[in-house]
Prior knowledge:
By secondary structure, the protein is an alpha/beta fold. It is built from seven helices and seven strands, in the order E-H-E-H-H-H-H-E-H-E-H-E-E-E. The protein folds into two domains: 2-117, P-loop containing nucleotide triphosphate hydrolases (Rossmann fold), CATH 3.40.50.300; 123-157, no CATH class. The chain has helices spanning 13-23, 32-41, 45-55, 62-73, 76-81, 92-101, 114-122, and strands spanning 2-6, 29-31, 83-86, 106-109, 124-126, 133-135, 155-156.
Amino acid sequence: xxxxxFGPPGGGKGTFAGQIKRxxxxxxxxSTGDIFRENLRNKTELGLKAKKYMDDGALVPDDVVTDMIKxxxxxxxxxxxGFLLDGFPRTIEQAEALDEITDIDxxxxxxxxxxxxxxxxxxxxxxxxxxxxxxxxxxxxxxxxICDKCGAELKHR
Length: 157
């Protein structure tokens, strides 16, 4: 199964992917944000390319983002189990590239009210060490400001 999740930032794509994974635990959830962070952390060639644009406050070009996605979609867990893709494609060029890379079984659009999105976005915090994500309103850590998983101080996203 190859699914693409669409929706606005704070629209619940990651949460929805988590719910799907409860029933299909082997299917990888592929988030462009996670891929960026992983490539930056590992100082890959693509990560270093992306960092140059990000440091300048510019959007990372489609070809760099597409290459990161293409690399991730070529890995064995994806080949064996399919994927839940979140945050890609965002442009026509990316959509055309995805169409060349693989077939998609379904596109899922999540629609959420503006008020809910604003509350979700303003409440987001994450762990800079292990990338665990929380929301101070809907999914708070057990101890305020501290990651349940590794004990690091949480940062607003």
